[in-house]
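P.,

For your records, the input lines for the assembly:
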Amino acid sequence: MKPFDYARAATVEEALAAGADGGRYIAGGTNLVDLMKLQVETPAKLVDISRLALDAVEQIDGGGVRIGALAPNSDLAAHPLIRTHYPMLSRALLAGASAQLRNKASVGGNLLQRTRCYYFYETAAACNKREPGSGCDAIGGFNRIHAVLGASASCIATHPSDMAVALRALDAIVVTALPEGGERRIALGDLYRLPGDTPEIETNLKPGELITAIELSAPPPGRQLYRKVRDRASYAFALVSVASAIAVENGVITSARLAFGGLAPMPWRSAEAEAALVGRPAGTEAFEAAADALLNEAQGYGHNDFKIVLARRTLIACLRDLTA
Amino acid sequence: MRITVNGQVREVEADLRTTLLDLLREHLGLTGAKKGCDHGQCGACTVLVDGRRINSCLSLAVMHEGDEVVTIEGLGTPDHLSPLQAAFLHHDGFQCGYCTPGQICSATAMLEEVAKGWASHVSGDLDRIELDDMEIRERMSGNICRCSAYPTIVAAIREVADAERLAEAAE
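Structure tokens returned:
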């Protein structure tokens, strides 16, 4: 690990001042410390935000919930407001990592965790995300876990989070504090950037900007589900995951939310797939139309071609279960 | 820095890069917590911090100033084993023993999580938990046993979980 300076922030203002000065925020550290050991990440200064009072989960006006950015993943999954009104979020959290990691991992850190692409982790490999301009060894390499949607010629890495997929389906808003003062409210879909030719820039956060909370509006109508398909039964990243809420009235789908993990560089939402469902009878024809809409621009890179078929089958199975 | 380990306040000086695991092992001589993968994948380094199980290899020691840490050495002694330590012996819940301190620390906190009503990935109902073997396996998936002593690890945890449930029912 490269040497670094360390400062513990007692207040959000202290954190922002240190963040504006080039400090890197650390909360649970489960991803960042690992990457620092491998020297994939070499921050000059860490700003410890783990003791800031940003871990509350509370009801807000309009029937929504505000989740402090430092709420541990395990506590959030178990929170009565979440498991009662947003079960897909509890399920997504519980499908991620191990109990030990969920105990440390914060909500903000989970959103900002880095890809698990093997070539990003291997400093001897070419990786445009780790070292811009060096190339991408995943294209033409071992790319079984890589993206089939939203990738580019410079990067095909996926975003690894389960939680963020459920939050995307729930239209979560990311609340941040800025070093120059004030706050921003960013739709989760606008937090992330597609790789394009700058895969090293993963979010639209400004230097020193600090995620302080996530806000959810009232739960979407209908039944919710999070389903994760992976290589082993527990403690593995998603090959494909689906977060969904579907409402059906008199056999017709009246509302649909669909977000996907394991397929893309960011938690993926498909407005086209949702549009293919709404107003149509809940049945195979609509489900297949949704899968077509989701996947018509999907592109495999060899080892991950199976994900396109797997995503189709998983989506249809989820829709069948949700409308049964 | 100052840190409480197994009930004792300790003053330690260490490089900022020191993980909690290295602090325990190299600075405080508590070699119960093991370094397996050193990347949070195997669980051999599991300790309890303020009552919660974490991977001590993925946590910087400096971030734990003032925290209360419990390691396998703090759960019991050879003369006074904790219920899980005794059950692991009784069921032969190990072969080489390298993962055992992590398994026992992890299981100790896991039973607390169940008592708090925390569901898991395999819970059919997020509000009601039946701690069957599938639940134990899922909840312990962050602890790998290279010797594959899983059946007896599950049996040991099952014994303590059942005993706790009986004790609660009797109250």
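Two observations worth noting. The domain at 83-170 of chain B is CATH 1.10.150.120 (DNA polymerase; domain 1). The beta strands of chain B are 2-5, 8-11, 46-49, 52-55, 68-70.

Regards
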